[in-house]
Amino acid sequence: MAPYSPPSGGRAGKLRLDFNENTVGCSPKVIECVQKYLTADHLTIYPEYQDARRDLGAFFGISPEEFTITNGTDEAIQLLINTFVDDGDDVLLLKPSYAMYRFYAEVAGASVREVEYAGDLSFPVADFLEAMRPETRAILIANPNNPTGSAIGLDQIELILETAPDAAVLIDEAYFEFYGVTALRWIRKYKNLFVSRTFSKVYGMAAMRCGCLFTCAENAQWIRKAQSPYSVNMLAVIAARAGVQDREHIAQYVGEVLAARELAYVGFERLGIRYFPSQANFVLFYAGDRAIPIRDALRERGVLVRDRSYEIPGCVRVTIGTRGQVERFLAELESLWKG
Ligand SMILES: Cc1ncc(COP(=O)(O)O)c(C=O)c1O
For the domain that residue 317 is a member of, what is the CATH number? Predict the structure, then answer.
């Protein structure tokens, strides 16, 4: 298998529009709680998740038996694969999508098949349904998807769940807050449904590595069997509990990003640059054969974006932050584009 090595070096001090992170930082309440927790006495104790499961469960409206706290979404993906997929099993993905689905499926020795997004980057419903087989063990879908920014509705998710009763279906809602559509309420209705959320994106805690994997209580028991008892460190748990308390911080940031995304669209249109409307906090734009030179030149000017031309020809992905940050990105892009 090919290694997955995201370009995560040398990013400090730059305008980081390359990893879809929160560009203003987490709630100050998170910092306060983590700092308070930093005592020798606390650090000496192995993690205890009971209180966090109660608080996070209350926040998500899910009982503590119906989810597990994970070391980022990445551990949620790994747990799902480790629990339900054996060597040689059929796993169905989309292309392009989040790289870690293929990564963990390949580590498990699964037989991975991928259905390509349509030319307009919309979800290829008919092709996907056709590709599903009775023996398919796992289906992993990001909604909204990264890097396309496109999303599917609940009717399509329901169709997939009903067509694949014997597959573990993950709906990865890493960018849920920017889209607002969730399958979470169905975890009791569909026993094959798994939903993941993360604290790495809108919550501004990617360094902490914390997420949640939701499913019916019976599945959650299986999942927890496959999970190390201390896989999430206590500072991450403290941060997540504090993060969900500050709803105002999140709502404010989401509002800012949605406004900034409109600004980005207007900017692209002004420059005559094709882009793909997005349901998340990032947008793909078309730079043709200038994709890599534009990425590199922006980097030299202190603005980081992500080349995706290796999977969607000519495309670059930019994370949407605040309006001010988008304005800076557009100003640099404009001078390069015309120059
Ligand atoms: C669709 C999707 N899921 C999950 C993640 C990563 O989540 P985490 O940091 O919680 O592992 C990303 C990050 O880029 C993503 O795009």
Answer: 3.90.1150.10
Could you report the per-residue pLDDT of 144-190, keeping only the tens digit for each?
999 999 999 999 999 999 999 999 999 999 999 999 999 999 999 99
Using CA positions, which residue lies closest to atom 16 of ligand 1?
Answer: 146
3-state SS of 79-126 is HHHHHHCCCCCEEEEEECCCHHHHHHHHHCCCEEEEEECCCCCCCCHH
pTM of the complete model? 0.97
- Paired strand residues for 211: 70, 198
CA of 337 to the centre of ligand 1 (A): 30
Per-residue buried b or exposed e for 303-334, using 16+ beta carbons within 10 Å of the residue's own CB? bbbbbbbeebeebbbbbbbbbebbebbbebbe
Number of domains into which the chain is organized: 2
Q: What is the pLDDT of residues 48-104, one digit of tens each?
A: 999 999 999 999 999 999 999 999 999 999 999 999 999 999 999 999 999 999 999
- Whether 70 and 215 map to the same domain: the answer is yes
Instruction: Write the pLDDT tens digit of every residue in 179-211.
Output: 999 999 999 999 999 999 999 999 999 999 999
Within-domain flag for 2: no
| Whether residues 129 and 277 fall in one domain | no
Domain end marker among 194, 223, 245: 245
Domain containing residue 106: CATH number: 3.40.640.10
Q: Which atom of ligand 1 is nearest to the CA of 144?
A: 1
Domain stop point among 189, 220, 245: 245
CB atoms inside a 10 Å sphere around CB 180:
9
* Same structural domain, 180 and 207: yes
72 lines ligand 1 (CB under 6 A): yes
Atom of ligand 1 nearest to the CA of 142: 1
Ligand 1 contact via 208 beta carbon (within 6 Å): no
Residue 273 has pLDDT above 90, yes or no: yes
For ligand 1, is residue 74 a contact (CB within 6 Å)? yes
Residue 8 lies inside a defined structural domain of this protein: no
